[in-house]
Amino acid sequence: MAAVGLTLHHERGQAVELALDAADWLEERGHEVRLPLHDAGLIGRPELGFAEATFPRGVDVALSLGGDGTMLRTVGLVARDGVPVIGVNIGQLGYLSEVEPSGIRMALKRFLAGSYEIEERMLLEVAVDAQAFEGGPSHLALNEAVLEKTPMGHTVRLSVSVDGEVFTPYAADGLIVATPTGSTAYAFSARGPIVEPTHRCLLLTPVSPHMLFDRSLVLAPSARLRIEVIGHRAATLSVDGSNLGTLRAGDSVTCTGSETTARLVAFGPRQFLRILKSKFGLSDR
Q1: Which of 222, 123, 138, 140 is nearest to 180 (CA)?
Q2: Which helix (H) or strand (E) holds 124?
Q3: Using alpha carbons only, how large is the chain's radius of gyration in Å?
Q4: CA-to-CA distance for 245 and 243, rounded, in angstroms?
Q5: According to a count of CB atoms within 10 Å of the terminal CB, is the N or C end of the chain lower?
Q6: Number of C-beta neighbours around residue 30 at 10 A
Q7: Apex 20 CA angle, 17 and 21, nearest 5
Q8: Which positions are annotated as active-site residues?
Q9: d(CA 62, CA 171)
């Protein structure tokens, strides 16, 4: 028997319905079902709830019911424990989700029968060095880490070093350090390059830079990219869309490719260019 974790979008009723149906279907077949505490409360099954720290322990697969944001949260919860993730797309076309709602039971059957593949995606290891920071010292990111101006602030000055050598200070609205997976997220809106998501590299992209050098950098995944807040203006740090807190002059963030990977379940070749064409309405002619 398998242990299956369920996570769901917190504001979509369809996700609640699908989670309840999947939980019932799995339990009827003798499998263990668990959810993070908040998610378990949303579906009215508090007895299935686990604290986020213990939720992934012993789980064979996590089923993410939502959009790309739910996938990012799920990967953040389970990646360090090596748990593979099945993404179920609820809503708009997502880049990360493999399965449509109507295919959940078939996806679970195929996974339990061993008929699947694992696609590994690079993660960022994000280390914070700050005197007083609310968000904790270490984080994983599937898409990106972002240092940017505070909501009501002006441009920030951020000094960038690579492998211990100073590169240059940036005056900008912010800097994005993205993975190839994250190249189609925030970095894309800042005119960064699109990178096939199974590659390994670091992307450094400035947001509205107030300087002549406004290009993205593509760096080796082993590069250690340190960004320090300089000057008197504070910056906020976000990881995969979650605002973690404020950094001030002298505080820094170091990003590098993590030894941990995101393990995404696939039931056939993932057609990245086909998804890209559909997302942007690209034609064949």
Answers
A1: 123
A2: strand 117-129
A3: 20
A4: 6
A5: C
A6: 8
A7: 85
A8: 68
A9: 41
| Tokens 């769901």, residue located | 8
For the chain, the maximum distance between any two Cα atoms, rounded to a whole number of angstroms, is 62
Beta carbons of 205 and 113 less than 8 angstroms apart? no
The residue assigned the tokens 């996590």 is 62
Confidence tier at 132 by pLDDT (50, 70, 90) = confident
Give the DSSP per-residue string, 143-202. Answer: SEEEEEE-TT---EEEEEEETTEEEEEEEESEEEEE-SGGGGTHHHHTTPPP--TTS--E
CA separation for the pair 44, 209 (Å, rounded): 48
Question: Which two three-digit tokens encode residue 129?
Answer: 């060095």
Residue-wise pLDDT for 44-83, tens only, equals 999 999 999 999 999 999 999 999 999 999 999 999 999 9
Residues 20, 22: Cα–Cα separation, whole Å: 6
What's the CA gap between 151 and 164, in Å, rounded? 30
**pLDDT one-digit tens code per residue, 86-119:** 999 997 767 888 899 999 999 999 999 999 999 9
